[in-house]
Amino acid sequence: MLTIGLIDYLNTMPFHYDLAERLQNEEVHFERGVPSRMNHALMAGEIDLAPISAIEAARHADDLYILPDLSIASLGAVKTVLLFSWAADITDLDGQSVALTDHSATSIALLKLLCRERYGIEPQFTVTKQHLPSMLAEHQGALVIGDDALIESTIHRALSGAHGWGLPYIYDLGDEWLKMTRLPFVFALWAARRDKVDALQNAGVFNALYASTEAGLQPKARDTLADAYAARLGLPGGVCRRYLRDLRYDLGEDDKAGLKLFLESALEGFQWDSLEFWHQTDALAL
């Protein structure tokens, strides 16, 4: 039995558009969870293939193959990796307490890198349960990702902080990265355990994943996914449609350049060549 990890965020929906249907005759099980759960489960051998945090793929490069032409990336604002803060200027967070989501690894590393190299500040970071109201009730800033970030930025409600109620400022980390580098930012990569790639390929999992993604990224299908998910999140369909249209899924050369710069900056001693891409002669191209 092969196990594929899936993340129930809107931005991953094109990947598993009809993946289960394509693999219905194979011995495949699906495990669902947040990105940090996928990171742990893949390295623990509990799952064999998953979209994981880009920085975790680099940290464990010796144990993984990266699937080419698949990623979650943005050129500028990503809308789901957001720093909410009581500070009107990020530099005012120097020495202040910032709560970090417990759902992600790449986003945390990106925020720390931006604080060091773009803003020149050293906040006091604390990983907490991802829940914006409680995070901002106790901290001056809060890093929130995924659907929660999309919802909170859309409704942009007044929250309680140390100085009373108010609207927090919102900083999009994808946009902040673009301002610093002029490059896209890659948040997630599809990675497979090296000891399972042959079994995954022989079962047709890779081909099914590429085909499902290609189908899910067709304009009509993508909008259908967005509208269905909008109802689940309680958001206008237009918000979710624009969000999916703005994301990058193909891991092009510009994306790789941004990824390389990030990993070399965030991980001391990291060598780009250590990140090995799986070469699959019969894989469908996106």
Give a written overview of the molecule.
- The protein starts with a strand and ends in a 20-residue tail after the last helix.
- It has helices at 19-22, 35-43, 54-59, 106-119, 132-138, 146-155, 173-181, 197-202, 205-216, 219-233, 237-246, 253-266; strands at residues 2-6, 28-32, 49-53, 64-74, 81-85, 97-100, 124-127, 141-145, 159-161, 164-166, 169-172, 185-193.
- The chain is of the alpha/beta class.
- A five-stranded mixed beta sheet has the order 7-6-8-5-11, sandwiched between helices. A three-stranded antiparallel beta sheet has the order 3-12-4. It has a two-stranded parallel sheet with strand order 1-2.
- The longest helix is centred in the last third of the chain and has 15 residues, at 219-233.
- Residues 282-286 have low confidence and may be disordered.
- The radius of gyration is 19 Å and the shape is globular.
- The protein is built from twelve helices and twelve strands.
- Strand 6, helix 4 (106-119) and strand 7 form a beta-alpha-beta unit.
- The protein folds into two domains: 2-73 and 185-274, Periplasmic binding protein-like II (D-Maltodextrin-Binding Protein, domain 2); 81-181, 3-Layer(aba) Sandwich (D-Maltodextrin-Binding Protein, domain 2), CATH 3.40.190.10.
